[in-house]
């Protein structure tokens, strides 16, 4: 375990130690993780050393990083006391939340207050979902407070996952009667007509990410039952034509692949008591050359419409493997140089 090569080494006079006590040794073991992997992750991302001394952890490093690492450790321990899990993604999210507020050198008390203030949680049947970045946090707030919300950004930033989580929460809370999840069935190299099976079997591969998200939040048998009862619908965008979607939570995923006419058709399906979420990545348009993306047009046309929120994500909000964020940043740099 050591200081990350990405973090400049602190000057000797800046290096001090913060000693933290954790009274429950069983929880301390969970906090450290198998083979101390949780401590290693914090060390690598914040450029500190963490030493275990009995039921204490000593954080050694420069003032700002040391304070942030101590705050993260305390918050993770509190999660364990509440019976909530700690994993690599949770650690990464807590560190990012601190960095996005400027990476300032706050006291331990200030750091804890910062992490605890305004916590946003989405409670589903199978898990509690917490936004891991400021952009995700604002997005979730807007999903609850606006009738139409757009989530725009690269893959892996939680746009669809969080939208489905909010939809499930509103459904089990009785705020909506149905969940409707849709995507444009736009192929990349394959034609629907050449795929085997009936229409459902043909479109299901395109809808699989939506099934995956649902199964993360609801028991599989319940998902299947709700689909059979038409209280959850997963369908291609073309199937929305001519409908009025009332008392429903509606998500349009991969919206960059909707044409301008399809986007207008979808948005005008909004009925009484419903909420809509539109997610997409403007850099991943699979439409034929010369066809305008409905997501880009909607962003231009609806930017100042009351009741509509636009939420933007960047590579910093990627919650998949850290390499995904670096890949996205590399492509963004290449696009900038080409432009």
The helical percent reads 40-55%
Major sheet: 6 strands, parallel
How many structurally independent domains?
2
Q: What would the average pLDDT be, to the nearest integer? A: 80
- Form type: globular
**SSE string, helices as H and strands as E:** EHHEEHHHEEHEHEHHEEHEHEH
Helical run tally:
12
Descriptive terms for the model:
single chain; 339 residues; alpha/beta; Ribosomal Protein S8, Chain: A, domain 1; Rossmann fold; 2 domains; six-stranded parallel β-sheet; three-stranded antiparallel β-sheet; 11 strands; 16% strand; disordered N terminus
Tell me what you see in this structure.
The chain has 339 residues and is of the alpha/beta class. The protein has 2 domains: 12-117, 2-Layer Sandwich (Ribosomal Protein S8, Chain: A, domain 1); 123-338, P-loop containing nucleotide triphosphate hydrolases (Rossmann fold, 3-Layer(aba) Sandwich), CATH 3.40.50.300. Helix content is 43%, strand content 16%. It is built from 12 helices and 11 strands. It has helices spanning 25-32, 37-46, 63-81, 88-100, 108-116, 134-145, 159-172, 199-217, 220-228, 260-267, 294-302, 322-338, and strands spanning 16-21, 49-53, 56-61, 122-123, 128-129, 148-152, 178-183, 232-236, 248-252, 275-280, 308-312. The strands form 3 sheets. It has a 6-stranded parallel β-sheet with strand order 8-7-9-10-6-11, with helices on both faces. A hairpin with a 2-residue loop joins strand 2 (49-53) and strand 3. The radius of gyration is 23 Å and the shape is globular.
């Amino acid at each position: 375990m050591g200081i990350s090569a990405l973090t400049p080494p602190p000057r000797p006079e800046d290096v001090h130690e913060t000693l933290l006590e954790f009274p429950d040794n069983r929880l301390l073991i969970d906090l450290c993780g198998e083979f101390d992997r949780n401590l290693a992750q914090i060390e690598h991302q914040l450029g500190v050393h963490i030493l275990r001394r009995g039921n204490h952890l000593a954080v050694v490093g420069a003032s700002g990083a040391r304070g942030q690492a101590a705050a993260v450790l305390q918050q993770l321990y509190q999660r364990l006391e509440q019976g909530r899990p700690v994993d690599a993604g949770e650690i990464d999210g807590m560190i990012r939340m601190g960095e996005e507020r400027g990476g300032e050198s706050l006291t331990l008390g200030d750091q804890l207050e910062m992490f605890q203030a305004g916590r946003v949680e989405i409670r589903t049947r199978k898990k509690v979902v917490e936004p891991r970045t400021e952009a995700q946090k604002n997005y979730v707030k807007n999903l609850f407070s606006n009738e139409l919300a757009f989530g725009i950004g690269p893959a892996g930033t939680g746009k669809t996952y969080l939208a489905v989580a909010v939809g499930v929460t509103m459904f089990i809370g009785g705020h909506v009667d149905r969940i409707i999840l849709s995507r444009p069935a736009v192929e990349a190299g394959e034609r629907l007509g050449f795929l085997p099976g009936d229409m459902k079997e043909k479109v299901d591969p395109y809808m699989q990410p939506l099934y995956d998200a649902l199964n993360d939040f609801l028991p599989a048998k319940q998902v299947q039952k709700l689909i059979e009862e038409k209280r959850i619908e997963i369908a291609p965008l073309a199937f929305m034509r001519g409908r009025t979607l009332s008392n429903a939570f509606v998500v349009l995923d991969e919206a960059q692949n909707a044409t301008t006419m399809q986007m207008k058709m979808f948005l005008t399906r909004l009925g009484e008591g419903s909420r809509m979420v539109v997610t997409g990545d403007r850099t991943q348009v699979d439409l034929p050359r010369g066809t305008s993306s409905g997501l880009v047009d909607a962003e231009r046309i609806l930017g100042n419409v009351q009741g509509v929120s636009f939420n933007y994500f960047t590579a910093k909000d990627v919650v998949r493997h850290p390499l995904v964020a670096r890949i996205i940043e590399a492509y963004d740099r290449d696009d900038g140089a080409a432009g």
